[in-house]
TrEMBL record:
This is S-adenosyl-L-methionine-dependent methyltransferase. It comes from Mycobacterium spongiae. It is an enzyme of class 2 (transferase). It comes from the Bacteria. Belongs to the UPF0677 family. NCBIfam families: mthyl_TIGR00027. Pfam families: LCM. InterPro entries: Ppm1/Ppm2/Tcmp, SAM-dependent_MTases_sf, SAM_mthyl_Trfase_ML2640-like. GO terms for biological process: methylation. Exhibits S-adenosyl-L-methionine-dependent methyltransferase activity. Keywords: Methyltransferase, S-adenosyl-L-methionine, Transferase. SUPFAM superfamilies: S-adenosyl-L-methionine-dependent methyltransferases. One of its GO terms (molecular function) is methyltransferase activity.
Length: 311
């Protein structure tokens, strides 16, 4: 699954598989006791995709019922579910705050299987622009349509690669750069080269009128520490080995989809350009949403910073 400059994918291929992994974690969290999020469409996407490694995350009984699985694998899967739950709650609250401030344009970059246009209580007149690979958007639209789902906001699908001229495609779809917008880049930047990340936010900044909001989760300091990367790869290999025992399917190496490059610090970059910025960590989100864990959340995951800002 080596990345190339112009690679593309369907929902069960390459980066598309990661969107299913996120949906699977959201489904598991939604169906758990004391869930911090409610995503009723996550299970719909997972079921429509069929069998894959995502089933390990969406069906935790697979691990719980198999005594041959190492406890560390269960911890890694639990970490994945907790991380995606906190991430989802963070972005949900971000969008609700932007909507409450009067923002009626929303742009979800690399929207994947995000279902916020269908499940958040958007005010009348809100337009959600979803940008992603054509096959990914088609899978989502078709699946939701077949299940009779109707969006709460108006949705504009924009099938485009974010490495291409997506600002032109966005404006051709009706986006008005003179009006405030709420932008999200959730679970995106690790899949972009460092220079492409810079270009992405340069474009966001250029298209953001006063009153705009932006949020992203980005690699924090120490993300590319060799020992941390080695440990993470080792733990993920354990999950793949377990999945291979439980599910008759190929198990991709997700880490090979990332660009492990040192990057511009987004919080500082936005601050230098006049945005009002706040940043938090995964551990702080666990505390915010009342989630108790049995592992060291900072050492168990690649350091991540959750950034939100208002212009």
């Amino acid at each position: 699954m080596t990345r190339t400059d112009n690679d593309s994918w369907a929902i069960t291929e390459s980066v598309g598989v990661t969107a299913l992994g996120v949906a699977a974690a959201r489904a598991a969290e939604t169906e758990s006791d004391n869930a911090v999020i409610n995503d009723p469409f996550a299970r719909v996407f997972v079921d429509a995709a069929g069998v894959g490694i995502w089933n390990v995350y969406s069906n935790t009984a697979l691990l719980a019922d198999n005594t041959d699985i190492e406890p560390s694998v269960r911890d890694r899967v639990r970490l994945m579910i907790d991380f995606m739950a906190m991430r989802t709650a963070f972005f949900d609250d971000f969008f609700l705050g932007a909507a409450a401030s009067g923002v009626r344009q929303v742009v979800i970059l690399a929207s994947g299987l995000d279902s916020r246009a269908w499940r958040l209580p958007w005010p009348d007149g809100t337009v959600v622009y979803e940008l992603d690979q054509p096959k990914v958007l088609e899978f989502k639209s078709t699946t939701l349509r077949e299940h009779g789902a109707h969006p709460i906001a108006r949705v504009e699908n924009i099938p485009v690669d974010l490495r291409q001229d997506w600002p032109m495609a966005l404006q051709q779809a009706g986006f008005d750069p003179s009006q405030p917008c709420a932008w999200s880049a959730e679970g995106l930047v690790r899949y972009l080269p460092a220079r492409a990340q810079d270009l992405l936010f340069e474009r966001v900044h250029a298209l953001s009128a006063p009153g705009s909001w932006v949020a992203s989760n980005v690699p924090a300091s120490g993300s590319f520490d060799p020992e941390g990367v080695r440990r993470m790869r080792e733990e993920m290999q354990g999950v793949r080995d377990a999945a291979a025992k439980l599910i008759d399917t190929d198990v991709p190496e997700f880490e090979d989809l990332w660009y492990a490059e040192e990057r511009t610090a987004l919080a500082e970059w936005l601050d230098e350009r006049g945005w009002e910025v706040s940043a938090t960590t995964f551990t702080e989100l666990l505390t915010r949403y009342g989630r108790e864990v049995s592992y060291d959340s900072e050492s168990a995951s690649m350091p991540t910073q959750f950034v939100s800002a208002r212009r």
